[in-house]
Amino acid sequence: MKTVFLFAAVIAAAPLSHAAKQTPAPTSAENTEVVFVAPEKFSDARDSYTGTDSGREAILSELRTYLQKDAKRLIPSGDRLFVSVTDVDLAGDFEPWRGGQWDDVRIVKDIYPPRIDLSFRLVNSAGVVVKEGTRNLRDNTFLMYVAAQLRDDPLRHEKALIDDWLRSEFRAPNKH
């Protein structure tokens, strides 16, 4: 994926309708299944201004893998988490009026925050739904902080959204 981010005026190299078309989750022994519902209609999961199907698939595949890996730490053994992502809007945007040479440049400003819309269902080992809901993940202050381990990741802002959601939604209750 060839994407370059303009961050604070400095260029830095960096990227519930179930009847709708879905991309299948990879077959795995993971405890989290992630499905992207009608990804071709997502607000912005593009690798360039014109975007490519393979670029979108690469971005979504990376987000799926990250969500599965991150959820594995928080979901109890034997439980399964089913996530349907219904929209993705990556941090930043392409500004075509800058000229053709800027087609692969994602401009990251606070007016272009990351967004992920999803629904989820957590099922325990007995098959009972423990928790479910719909969430609209947003972070309008995304430029104020970035986890050190994600600093050079082109999807760092979206991954931070996923981290925040999983920790707040599935953390174990405090035992005092």
Q: How does this structure look, described?
A:
This protein is 20% helix and 29% strand. The chain is built from two helices and nine strands; from the N terminus they run ββββαβββββα. By secondary structure, it is α+β, with helices and mostly antiparallel strands. The radius of gyration is 17 Å and the shape is globular. The chain starts with a strand and ends in a 6-residue tail after the last helix. The strands form two sheets. It has a five-stranded mixed sheet with strand order 3-4-5-8-9, covered by helices on one side. A four-stranded mixed sheet has the order 2-1-7-6, with no helix packed on it. The chain has one domain. The N terminus is likely disordered.
**Alpha carbon gyration radius:** 17 Å
Low-confidence stretches: 1-29
Number of domains: 1
Structural class: alpha+beta
Order of helices and strands: EEEEHEEEEEH
**Total strands:** 9
Number of helices: 2
Give the gist of this structure.
With 176 residues, the chain is an alpha+beta fold. It has helices at 53-72, 156-170; strands at residues 4-7, 10-13, 22-23, 32-37, 80-89, 93-94, 105-108, 115-123, 129-138.
Topology of this protein?
Layout (H helix, E strand, L loop, with lengths): L3 E4 L2 E4 L8 E2 L8 E6 L15 H20 L7 E10 L3 E2 L10 E4 L6 E9 L5 E10 L17 H15 L6
